[in-house]
Specification:
The protein is 23% helix and 21% strand. With 183 residues, the protein is an alpha+beta fold. It has a domain at 112-173. It has a four-stranded antiparallel sheet, with no helix packed on it. Strands 1-2-3 form a three-stranded antiparallel sheet, with no helix packed on it.
Length: 183
C-alpha cells in the first residue's frame, strides 16, 4: 500500500469515528434530558400505608420465630419417605365403613374385535380397525365409538378406551383370529 492510500484510509476511519461519536452523544443527551424531568406535585399520590412508622412488635415476632423442618431436603426434588408405622400387638380391625370392591373395567361388546391399526402416509395419528360382525369401524385417538366409548390410546398390541358415561377405563388386545371376508 502506498502512503496516499494509507492516509486516505486513516482519514476515512477518523470520519466514521466522528460520525459515530456524534450520534452516540446525541442519543445520550436526549436520554439524560428526559430522565431529569421534575415530578409535578399535583400528580403525586402517596402509598396507602396507614402508619409509616417501623412496627417493632411485628419485627420482634418475626425475629423470635423458630424454624421447624419438615424433614425434606431443600436441595432435592422429592419428599422423604413416610415414617414407618408403629408396630402394635392388636390385630388390624377396620374401623371405617366397608367399601365395596370397584366394578370391573368396562369391555367392548363381545362381538366387537380389535383386529389392527394403521397410519396414513402423511404422518397423521394412528387409526384402529374394529369389526362388529359385518360392520367395520375406523377410529382415531380421541374419537368416540358407538357413542359409548372414547379411544384413549392405540398401541401396538392393545387398544385403551374410556367409557364416556362413567369415565372408567378399559383395554382390549389385538385379536389373533383371522377376519372372515364379507359375502
Amino acid at each position: 500500500m502506498s502512503d496516499k492510500t494509507k492516509l486516505a484510509w486513516l482519514v476515512g476511519l477518523i470520519a466514521v469515528a466522528a460520525i459515530i461519536w456524534y450520534f452516540n452523544g446525541k442519543v445520550r443527551s436526549t436520554i439524560t434530558s428526559n430522565s431529569s424531568l421534575s415530578m409535578d406535585e399535583r400528580s403525586f399520590k402517596p402509598l396507602g400505608i396507614e402508619n409509616p412508622e417501623l412496627q417493632r412488635d411485628v419485627l420482634k415476632h418475626s425475629r423470635e420465630t423458630e424454624y421447624k423442618t419438615s424433614g425434606r431436603d431443600l436441595f432435592t426434588g422429592f419428599a422423604p419417605p413416610p415414617p414407618e408405622p408403629e408396630k402394635t400387638t392388636q390385630p388390624n380391625i377396620p374401623t371405617g365403613p366397608i367399601v365395596a370392591a370397584p366394578p370391573p373395567p368396562p369391555a367392548l361388546p363381545a362381538s366387537m374385535k380389535f383386529f389392527g391399526y394403521g397410519t396414513v402416509p402423511n404422518g397423521s395419528a394412528r387409526r384402529a380397525f374394529l369389526a362388529d360382525g359385518d360392520e367395520i369401524y375406523i377410529v382415531g385417538e380421541g374419537d368416540t365409538l358407538l357413542g359409548k366409548f372414547r379411544i384413549v390410546k392405540i398401541g401396538n398390541a392393545n387398544l385403551d378406551f374410556e367409557e364416556v358415561a362413567t369415565g372408567r377405563r378399559g383395554s382390549t388386545n389385538i385379536s389373533e383370529e383371522p377376519a372372515t371376508p364379507a359375502s
